[in-house]
Amino acid sequence: xxxxxxxxxxxGVCLGGLGVIAAAAVSWPLFRYLAPRSGSDAAGKVVIPDxxxxxxxxxxxxxxxxxxxxxxxxxxxxxxxSAVCTHLGCxxxxxxxxxxxxxxxxxxxxxxxxxVTAGPPPKPLKKLPFSVAGGNITVG
Amino acid sequence: xxxxxxxxDWIDVRVGIREVxxxxxxxxxxxxxxxxxxxxxxxxxxxxxxxxxxxxxLLIYYVPDADKAFKSVTSIMNDAPYGWLIRMxxxxxxxxxxxxxxxxxxxxxxxxxxxxxxxxxxxTGFVLxxxxxxISxxxxxxxWSQLSFWxxxxxxxxxxxxxxxxxxxxxxxxxxxxxxxxxxxxxxxxHVAVIPAGIxxxxxxxxxxxxxxxxxxxxxxxxxxxxxxQGDSYRYEGHPGGIPFFPNFALEDLRSVAIYMACFLxxxxxxxxxxxxxxxxxxxxxxxxxAHIKPEWYFLANYQTLKIFPNELIGLSLQGAAMTFLALLPxxxxxxxxxxxxxxxxxxxxxxxxxxxxxxxxWGHLS
Amino acid sequence: MIYCxxxxxxxxxxxxxxxxxxxxxxxxxxxxxxxxxxxxxIQCHSxxxxxxSQPVTLWRGSIHAENGIFCNGCHGGDPKDAANAMSPARGxxxxxxxxxxxxFCGRCHVGVMKDYLAxxxxxxxxxxxxTCVTCHGNHQVVKASLExxxxxxxxxxxxxxxxxxxxxxxQETESTIVAIDQRxxxxxxxxTDTEKLEKELFSVRNSFxxxxxxxxxxxxxxxxxxxxxxLKKIQVVLDRLDATYQRRKIAGAVVVSxxxxxxxxxxxxxxxxx
Lengths: 140, 367, 274
Fold this sequence. Notes:
The complex is a heterotrimer of chains A (140), B (367) and C (274).
Chain A (H helix, E strand, L loop, with lengths): L1 H33 L11 E4 L8 E6 L2 E7 L5 E5 L10 E3 L4 E4 L4 E3 L5 E3 L11 E4 L2 E4 L1
Antiparallel strand pairs in A: 1-10, 2-3, 3-4, 5-6, 6-7, 7-8, 9-10
Chain B lengths: L1 H14 L1 H10 L2 E2 L9 H22 L7 H10 L4 H28 L8 H23 L4 H12 L8 H9 L6 H33 L29 E2 H26 L29 H9 L3 H16 L1 H4 L11 H23 L1
Antiparallel strand pairs in B: 1-2
Helix pairs in contact in B: 3-5, 3-10, 4-5, 5-6, 5-10, 6-7, 6-9, 11-12, 11-14
Chain C lengths: L1 H6 L2 H13 L17 H6 L4 H11 L2 H4 L4 H5 L25 H6 L3 H8 L2 H4 L8 H5 L14 H4 L6 H28 L6 H18 L4 H55 L3
């Protein structure tokens, strides 16, 4: 009876310990899952001099690991898009004479506003946030 | 320890907690020859609780909109910290729950515990079974993948075989002629609110009947394994000289749950995609039907039955008849004998039925 | 029959009635109306003599069919109106004559057409040189691979030697691309968000394959280095994913062992109460 009782205490303590570990093992992922996430990648902004983007022309650069493009429309407005075609991922080209984007893979066409004008792309080009200050364009 | 005693005393003088503990836990006696199969119910309760908790957590990031659902699930799997763990626990858990439910049903069948006076227990259990099937079916659509979309299309289409109202029934189930955003809306409501509430209510009823009638005695190791119930008046079936629920059988229950969790977590961490196909990770496309859409394993027998008969209505009716037979089993099988080896007709029918179900499932998988 | 019914008890009678009640419902099954997205072209052409039905059969095994590009996608015409399906007024182009083939395919495959026209092959267009169809076929166009550059195909016009050189120059990069494709597929099957990776690989693969159409070995060798660098970037991401999944498996082993330990402790504790 006595050995039973001491064994019970020992096993009880063991199980108590296992219980504490289990509680911790469940609480940590739960906390991480529920905790608010830090905003989108803070780093990785790209700065391009204003003068590099001439009117009616496009400047391609790398942003967040993929190709991106800046265009200064006829009339002066600047637009920034991801240059990854929304169809299958090829990089679009800028057609200066037509002032639009053409994807060389399956002839997807996007207007200078990024909307699909012809071909298989399902969605418009993803817009990128940017700001203009002090002669520089900062994308991201 | 005196602090704990003081707290318990404080509660005891207000609600008589010690009396409750004595009655429901330490003084609640179970038959000496109780076996591990009697833990299946506890495992199911635990599994259901896990589904509810993981489901609630998924609700935080899941978006029930046809345009956003798939992306939200992808985000849970890839962006939310441990989101993959919660999602896979939920997905694997639903399959494990159905498996344990089938085992629970089989053990009750073989030990004859559905016989009088426990018919109501069986009936509530049967309704729980259909509700679990329903919650699995509705949950399947929510990720809005190719598999979700087309499996739901096939499943809801089977109702069209019902004469006169069939086609309307299909549209009513879907909320529109074809599976689409209205389907997602109603399936979401069913999966997250209606059916869980129903399951909780029926679990309550199921447990009430269990407690009120008393736990059955396993028919094994008994000279006389026949049902002794007279049916003249209500009597609680106690087990004098039996083992206390707490701590004895409670520990057995916990042990069974721990073993279940070991198996469950092994699947979650080593092969959770056992139940997934490539189409589970392609967003739903109403214009492209994938080549091999099949329902989950627990519906394969139903699926194959419908395929066998050229007339879908026959297939549907046969399944309806089988389910009705199962539901009314305690009223059809009125024999007093409970030991499986002393019920040859029952053994033949049940083993035959189980083999038929397994055979149809395998056939459904291979076809 | 009536005697039998009387002899059966209520239970059996109920069963028989249920079976009989099903009889009036043994109607022929209603086939659901199949909404076909295929153009009318296929309805006629698949039933015609082999000369006109073969294109349909060949097309069914093509990558165009896999991606929902139907007859009218290349040949124009009206895919829904059988009477006017082949009407020039509806844009029907018919089958292109040989010199018009590159422009025909190039309506979509713009980049490749440009490279081809600037190449030695393109300069021989209409003078016995190859067109798109020569190597890729016209209806059973499959996903491009290095297999298209082979002795049987290239030696139709000239010795295989120069083709062999280009193929050798492309082989290593091609194998890397195929291996990466398989890895991405394996990750996709386990719920990883592979959209960005798939797009990157497609872009690199395309820019690599289109290289061949210049049939310029020096150009291929020069660009291969750039392409290999792009592929390496993708491989780094895949390796990181591999490491993550490996960590999860180890965590799994720990967790399962923990549960078994708990089961053992509970079992032993249970035993002390006997």
